[in-house]
């Protein structure tokens, strides 16, 4: 009886990772039907600075959270202008997990995010302005206090100012004191602003 030759095994995701790991191959794998193949591609694209645009585009349509997370990690490591633009665009997302992950990613890129921060803090959408203040929470940049002072001095939205004054209570110095008093005068009928500003002033006074 003749022996049947076994059919060749279908390539696994690990096989796909071993094949065509140059930029064209990785970009092709980034569009694969298999989420594992997309995840490996997104991870390996860390070594390809020219991949930022493709990663940003994929992030906009990606439905698998684990792949989105790896894309965000790779964009953070690349950290170029296109990558930062892609991360900031996530602040407009209705997906809270994606939005929060982008905020955490931006916190790791203080020098790269700084050039777009003023624009974000003046965005027409108050939610985006609030998320921008959230980025400032752990952004290790020398202008953080300056940006927060400007927010509480100029922003017309009470919730944006409330978010900023909360953070000023943690990072503010004597230079914030006049603006905190002005904020109290501007939102005299807002109990939370009064409370948060007083708390910030107390913490600053205590050093």
From TrEMBL:
Catalyzes the hydroxylation of the N(6)-(4-aminobutyl)-L-lysine intermediate produced by deoxyhypusine synthase/DHPS on a critical lysine of the eukaryotic translation initiation factor 5A/eIF-5A. This is the second step of the post-translational modification of that lysine into an unusual amino acid residue named hypusine. Hypusination is unique to mature eIF-5A factor and is essential for its function. It comes from the Bacteria. It comes from Marichromatium gracile. One of its GO terms (molecular function) is oxidoreductase activity. This is HEAT repeat protein.
């Amino acid at each position: 009886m003749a022996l049947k030759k076994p059919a060749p095994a279908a390539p696994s995701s690990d096989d796909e990772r071993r094949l065509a790991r140059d930029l064209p191959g990785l970009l092709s794998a980034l569009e694969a039907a298999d989420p594992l193949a997309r995840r490996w591609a997104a991870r390996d694209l860390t070594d390809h600075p020219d991949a930022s645009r493709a990663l940003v585009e994929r992030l906009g349509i990606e439905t698998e959270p684990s792949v989105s997370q790896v894309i965000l990690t790779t964009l953070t490591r690349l950290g170029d202008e296109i990558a930062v633009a892609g991360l900031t665009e996530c602040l407009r997302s209705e997906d809270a997990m994606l939005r929060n992950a982008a905020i955490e990613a931006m916190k790791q890129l203080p020098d790269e995010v700084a050039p777009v921060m003023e624009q974000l803090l003046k965005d027409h959408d108050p939610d985006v302005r609030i998320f921008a203040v959230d980025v400032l929470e752990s952004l290790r940049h020398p202008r953080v206090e300056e940006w927060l002072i400007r927010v509480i001095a100029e922003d017309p939205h009470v919730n944006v100012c409330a978010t900023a004054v909360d953070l000023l209570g943690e990072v503010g110095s004597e230079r914030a004191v006049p603006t905190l008093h002005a904020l109290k005068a501007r939102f005299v009928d807002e109990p939370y602003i009064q409370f948060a500003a007083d708390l910030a002033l107390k913490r600053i006074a205590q050093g």
